[in-house]
Specification:
The protein is α/β, with parallel strands linked by helices and 238 residues long. The protein has 11 helices and 8 strands. It has helices at 9-14, 40-43, 48-62, 83-94, 112-115, 125-130, 135-138, 159-163, 166-176, 194-201, 216-225, and strands at residues 20-24, 71-76, 100-104, 139-142, 147-150, 181-185, 204-210, 233-237. An 8-stranded mixed beta sheet has the order 1-8-7-2-6-3-5-4, with helices on both faces. Helix 3 crosses helix 4 (83-94). The longest helix has 15 residues, at 48-62.
């Protein structure tokens, strides 16, 4: 009775009063692969995890048939809930039906570059917004997934200020004319306001909750902070 954590899809519907977009199963870790979910869609396309990602992809597409979502932001309440895994999975799955750009906008703890093994890539989002480097220098094609990647780049002293700048808004508008879908991996919304800023610039927001870990009230507080002027979707990870 005292356990108030989110555990099942029923908890999402009854306790959060939200619609469940999908459930991603927990993958076992091993010494060689600390985060198997990062490339599971490519490594094992017929697994239950990959099928769950296709279910989420279908939900995203079907929920916006008349006005397809161009820019989708993923966030969570706290770190470690699976938002980066969800962002990567969406990029892999959506790349099969259109052109996709994956942006690492978690400027405080960027992880996309490490997840995809792009260790030699130096320039990214901050460089592009500052106009110190060109789009060709900052955006790279990830051939294995058939989508483009814009890593975080040099970490700025104030990420929120960068994301709320007019230059960043203009950049998103320009990129949305090039790509069918833009997936933005944002910072968790409990501690910083980055995700709240990005949500106002996005067509949809996917809120990721880790099963049997995050308290209901913490999730509710996080969702309340997300601007409600757009249609928001939620993903749930077990």
């Amino acid at each position: 009775a005292l356990d108030n954590r989110i555990k099942t899809s029923i908890d999402v519907e009854h306790k959060l009063k939200e619609t469940l977009l999908g459930i991603l199963p927990l993958l076992p870790k091993n010494r060689s692969t600390a985060h198997p979910s990062y490339k599971q869609y490519i490594d094992d396309p017929h697994s239950g995890y990959s099928e769950s990602l296709r279910t989420i992809r279908t939900g995203v597409i079907l929920s916006s048939l008349d006005n397809p979502y161009k820019i989708i932001t993923t966030t969570s309440t706290i770190p470690g809930e699976g938002k980066t895994s969800t962002s990567l999975g969406l990029a892999f799955s959506l790349a099969q039906v259109g052109s996709v750009l994956l942006i690492d906008a978690d400027m405080r703890r960027p992880s996309i570059q490490k997840a995809l093994g792009l260790h030699d890539h130096k320039h990214g989002l901050s460089n592009l917004v500052a106009k110190s480097h060109t789009m060709e220098e900052c955006i790279i094609q990830y051939g294995e997934g058939n989508f483009d990647v814009l890593t975080a780049g040099i970490i700025p002293p104030n990420p929120s200020e960068l994301l709320s700048s007019q230059r960043f808004k203009d950049l998103l508008i320009g990129l949305s004319k090039i790509y069918d879908k833009i997936i933005i991996d944002s910072a968790p919304c409990q501690a910083v306001s980055d995700a709240l800023i990005l949500a106002t610039l996005s067509d949809a927001c996917i809120y990721v909750v880790k099963s049997d870990a995050t308290a209901v009230q913490h999730v509710k507080n996080g969702i309340k902070r997300i601007p409600v002027s757009y249609t928001h979707l939620r993903a749930h990870e077990t």
